[in-house]
Amino acid sequence: MGKEEDIKTALLESAIEYVRQNHQETIDKAYDYFWDEETPDEFLTGTALELGFINFEDWLIFDFKANEDKETFIEIYCREHKPGEKEREIAGRLKDSVLSLYEVSSVARDKRVMLKDLLLGDECSLKNKTLTRGLSQGDIFATRLFTLDGNCVMSVCVYPFSRDQKTKVLESVGKQFRRYVKNDNAQGTMKDYLKNYGDVFNIIWMNLFVRPDKEYKR
User: Fold this and answer.
1) What residue ranges do the domains of the chain occupy?
2) Among 16, 17, 31, 143, which one has the highest count of C-beta atoms within 10 angstroms of its own C-beta?
3) CA proximity to 15, closest of 73, 92, 56, 68
4) Domain 99-162 classified CATH 2.40.50?
């Protein structure tokens, strides 16, 4: 793990611990919102349940608006703890990141994976074999990417979708984005929408993967 990735890991661990110790009531409210007032352990088990909690924590730290000033917890943590210059610079990268939908466009012999952002149009090459193991061309998932130590790095947050769900996921995000532009921000971009409503992937995940018998709406 490179130096910047070490700093990122320590920064997030410290921020998460700070939130747990000081904002439990807010966590409870965010949890209810994220799961649409459902109880995830009633319909998730094993790896899927563990992944659900990881995804919630990621959204809680990076995207959830934790106060009336619409600050995220990563912003609140940095404001109150005043980390060093390098930590602040990396925190800025984390703060600006968004969850998006990716498709594996190619897998090289050395297991380097090329990802295409299906919503923002970017491309990224992943070199970390631990994260890319098992991925194959055509796989679809939502995640958060960072640039650290000059490399593209994938978050531990992942929403897996089957390949035949690609069109449905894109249609669902597109529909919600158009609603966002109409009702919330006429000048808003897709990146603006994803930063404000990254939880859309959890709702879609419940719709298509976890609870296909129930329709969830934001």
Assistant:
1) 3-95, 99-162, 165-210
2) 143
3) 73
4) yes
